[in-house]
Amino acid sequence: MFEERKKEYHQIFIMHVGNLSKQSSIYPPLGLAQIIASLEKEGYKLEVIDLLFDKTLERVENLKGKDGIYILSFSTALVDRVNNIIKIIRQKDKKAFIMGGGAHPTAMKEKVFEDLDLDLIALGEVKTNEIINALHRKNRFQKLSKIKGIIYKQKGKIKINPAVDSWEELDSLPIANQGAFPLDKYFKLKGFRELTMISSRGCPHRCIFCQPILRSLFGSKIRFASPKKVVDEMEYLVKNFKIDMITFSDDDFAFNQNRVIEICKELIRRKIHVLWRCQARVGIKEEVLKYMKRAGCFLIAFGVESGSQKILDDAKKDLKVQEIIDTLGHCKKIGILIHAYLMVGNIGESRETINKTILLIKKIKPFTFNISITTPYPGTFIYEYAKENNLFIDSKWSEYDHILNGAVAKLSDFEPEELYKIKEELEKVLNQESERYKDLMGLLLDIKFMSFLFWVIIQNPSLPFRMLRLTFGMLVKKGKAFVVTNPYLEK
Ligand code: B12
Ligand code: SF4
Q: 226 and 270 share a domain?
């Protein structure tokens, strides 16, 4: 079979289209790294083009692709850049087959073809191997017509295939090949060696600013990698890339708390000493938090969002303000640092609800934070709400970034300019209320944590220098450095 494919071999380009000057966090892209690993496993040779560090698109202009297959993955904020990239590819490679996937194409479906001259889009977790195999056959369109979850153009006509109805077990996937990207550039830019992992896919919750796009990406059920597979991958990252820390990208790492305990036990049993952090929903039990700390988890990021119960209820967060106070209080007691994701400008936001958020900040005192302006991304319930109620302000796709921009619709009492001011006001309160030095001292005085750190440093002797620089940077930048890790960000 492979021989047959080799005869009609196409060059395959994997393109990371990120934009350094417009991106708050910098990581090698996990979705593409996963695709690379799967294609390499099938024997395909790939050209990986990381455009993140390129201000201009000169490298795309210099590409020598002929009859190439181009794989792009992007969120809404990147649409304008993707558009420019596609235009250049079309000029250079007349027979190019350009495909896109990730959050934006999945949300927009066939409407994406109105903005972008793509040949095919993948809705969520589609098996890229099947598409590439089909493209290597003479009767490619006949083969494509059998693949679920794709929309493609055939002689200018849009063909919509049925949706994906079964998803792969995470344990059967190869480890994402993050090493295919220029990791040293990433590490140098950030000042520390950090990679991401994802140990579960999907989120069954129903928050209106986030769903149902996640269900379209990964299905409505949450899938988990087994504790063994998770720890195998952590060990692989430690051994191969000498990393300082691992950040889990799972939407809710602790959805299954027994699994978290099993992962921690496995890490402890195999004596794997690595620092890690994750994001999770409020509600993790104290016992689980204790295991996490013992196994190297030093920070948890929580979707706190608002101190107003009404805002939380209207956003269908299924969360009580008191639960936030309790879980974050347990973290403080146990000595796990807290990162709080907060939002301003949700539907119904008013001076009164902002004051409630300020009261909550005064209680939870997070170590670090970020505040986003509620952004109705395509594929979310609030996007539909904003559309139906004519609330959108005329914005470019590149402004759909809840951290760096975001006020693309008037969802609340506040005008966009007022939201930026409120964001600044909350930042001030967060910095005043934070107990950063106390939280850090807590870690330094924790004998068990320090002996864990001792073993981490034995394996990674240059870590203390980077840790000091990171901590110093974070204290100077007042709590935002963990999130805004990109010094080249355009203000
Ligand atoms: C982790 C994460 C990040 C990390 C990424 C770290 C990393 N190492 O990649 C960081 C912090 C960098 C990030 C940044 C942003 N993010 Co983000 N992020 C996520 C999160 C939680 C997980 C992404 C992930 O790693 N998934 C795991 C991988 C394996 O899946 P995947 O990327 O979807 O790829 C798979 C499939 O989709 C498919 N696929 C993907 N591309 C393609 C292409 C082709 C051709 C094919 C065939 C298949 C295919 O195959 C892949 C393997 O199975 C998602 C929510 C979610 N659960 O998806 C939000 C999410 C994608 N992010 C979102 C947003 C808004 C952003 C930011 C704009 C916000 C911000 N300012 O931080 C920026 C955008 C940055 C940019 N310029 O693109 C939104 C996107 C909404 C939208 N319509 O755009 C999401 C959906 C969250 C949400 N619900 O709002 N993010
Ligand atoms: S905001 Fe978090 S909890 Fe809510 S649906 Fe999205 S990922 Fe799940």
A: yes
The answer to whether residue 245 scores a pLDDT higher than 70 is: yes
Question: Which CATH number do you get for residue 133?
Answer: 3.40.50.280
Residue located nearest, by CA, to atom 63 of ligand 1 = 75
Number of separate domains in the chain? 2
Phi, psi of 161 (to 5 degrees): -85, 160
Full DSSP string of 234-279? HHHHHHHH--SEEEE--TTTTSSHHHHHHHHHHHHHTT---EEEEE
Q: Residue 44 sits in which domain range?
A: 2-160
Are 144 and 286 contained in the same domain? no
Ligand 2 midpoint to CA 256 (Å): 15
Question: What is the per-residue pLDDT across 106-154, written as a single tens digit (0 to 9) for each?
Answer: 999 999 999 999 999 999 999 999 999 999 998 999 999 999 999 999 9
Q: Are residues 155 and 230 in the same domain?
A: no
Cis peptide before 212 (omega within 30 of 0): yes
> Do 200 and 151 share a domain, yes or no?
no
User: What order do you get walking across the sheet with 368-373 strand by strand?
Assistant: 194-197, 245-248, 275-280, 297-305, 337-344, 368-373
* Arithmetic mean of pLDDT, 324-351: 97
Same domain, 119 and 218: no
Same domain, 216 and 113: no
142 plus 213 within the same structural domain? no
What's the 312 CA to ligand 2 centre distance in angstroms?
12
Residue 273: CATH number of its domain: 3.80.30.20
Residues 131-168: b if buried by 16+ CB within 10 A, e if exposed: bbbbbbeeebeebbeebebbbbbeeeeeeebeebeeee
In short, whether 368's Cβ falls inside 6 Å of ligand 1 is no
Answer whether residue 149 is part of any domain. Answer: yes
Convert the pLDDT of each residue in 262-311 to its tens digit.
Answer: 999 999 999 999 999 999 999 999 999 999 999 999 999 999 999 999 99
How far from 450 is each of 75, 235, 269, 443, 453, CA to CA, in Å? 39, 21, 19, 7, 5
| CA-angle at 223, arms to 71 and 75, nearest 5° | 35
* Token output for 360: 């909550």
pLDDT digits (tens, 9 = 90+) for 366-421: 999 999 999 999 999 999 999 999 999 988 998 999 988 878 999 999 998 899 99
Q: Is the CB of 196 under 6 A from ligand 1?
A: yes
How many CB atoms neighbour CB 20 within 10 A?
17
pTM, rounded to two decimals: 0.95
Do 278 and 250 touch, CB atoms closer than 8 A? yes
Calculate how far, in angstroms, residue 285's C-alpha sits from the geometric centre of ligand 2: 19
**Amino acid at position 233, single letter:** E
* Maximum Cα–Cα distance across the chain: 68
Assess if residue 175 is contained within a domain. Answer: no
Residue 250, ligand 1, Cβ within 6 A = no
